[in-house]
Amino acid sequence: MLNCLTQISFSKVNSNKRIEKASKALSKGILNKIIAFVLFLLGANRKDISNYLHIPFGTLLSFLTRIEKHKLEAFSDRRKTATDKHTNQQQNDISFNIKAQKIYIQAGGQSKVLNIPAENILQRKIVILSLFNSNLLSSKEAAGAIGISERHIWNLSTKIKNEDIYSIIDKRKGQSSDYIVTPDIKAELIQQYVLASITNQSTSGNSLSIQLKERCNLDLSGRTIRCHIKKLGLDKIKSTLPLLLQDLKKT
Fold first, then answer.
1. 24-60 pLDDT per residue, tens
2. What is the DSSP string of the chain?
């Protein structure tokens, strides 16, 4: 190994050109580290290296120590690496903001909206539970979005993992009927609800279920009927229907 450079000829012009070219591919800091390490390997005095490259002596010693510990990583700019890592992490982070029937997704500084129709209860539940099972939502956030308890969220989460989404549909009695109520059936339900309201009869789900069975031979559970009464807003007009009828009779 050479311990001096007297046997090698140098060109100041070539040196300037090569350093300028290398500076375009490497930062000045990395370039100085490479030169310093090469001079160190060739046996140059560390004080002389420090003076020649205008590197603080303590910084040079720290750099040589890092090479022993971290190998090639010692040549990189640690501050830049940390900044890039933080920037990439910020760009890759995904946040969710759930309002009403919309789920706002923000990733890489851009916001997207996942809009679930209000009547698509099952779809919303599946989406929320999928986000929860992927650790993208907390149990509190998921419970608040669906309107159930955190304990129920954990139970549903386990069911989906073990039995897929069928566990949510099939194991809730009456649920399968909720999704096959045709417009004609809804029309008949509205008619029977209005009739019961103006004649002061019971408008409960079970009572209407019996009436629909007797008069129209429709098999709807009380749960399904209550669900659609609420969806159609019929419960909001129950008290006003008899009054409207009385007013009509007066005219």
1. 777 777 888 888 888 888 888 888 888 888 888 888 8
2. --S-STTS---HHHHHHHHHHHHHHS-HHHHHHHHHHHHHHTT--HHHHHHHHT--HHHHHHHHHHHHHHGGGGGS-HHHHHHHHHHHHHHH-EEEEEETTEEEEEETTEEEEEE--TT-HHHHHHHHHHHHHTTSS-HHHHHHHHTS-HHHHHHHHHHHHHHTTHHHHHTSTTHHHHT---HHHHHHHHHHHHHHHHTT---SHHHHHHHHHHHH-----HHHHHHHHHHHTGGGSTTTHHHHHHHHHH-
Does the predicted model carry a pTM greater than 0.90? Answer: no
